[in-house]
Design brief:
With 71 residues, the protein is mainly alpha-helical. Helices cover 52% and strands 11% of the residues. The chain has 3 helices and 2 strands. Strands 1-2 form a two-stranded antiparallel ribbon.
Length: 71
């Protein structure tokens, strides 16, 4: 969680533990796209009928920042 918050602020998605480091940005991007797809399919299309006639929508919640670029 801390790595994702840090990555959103500083664009540094490196997970550091002990003397090791791994870049998790590709994983964050992959799962952000999957979460956005889930939101689009299950919430927007399923519950709201595709938001027909609506010019703008506000996405709020835990994954909103990550999903925004994919919606």
């Amino acid at each position: 969680d801390a790595v994702i918050r840090h990555g959103l602020k500083k664009k540094d998605y490196n997970l550091r533990m002990g003397g090791s480091e791994v870049d998790i940005e590709p994983l964050v991007n992959k799962y952000s796209a999957r979460y956005a797809e889930w939101v689009a399919n299950n919430i927007i299309d399923g519950a709201f009928g595709g938001l027909r006639g609506i010019k703008a929508a506000i996405l709020v919640g835990g994954g909103a920042t990550l999903a925004e670029q994919h919606l």
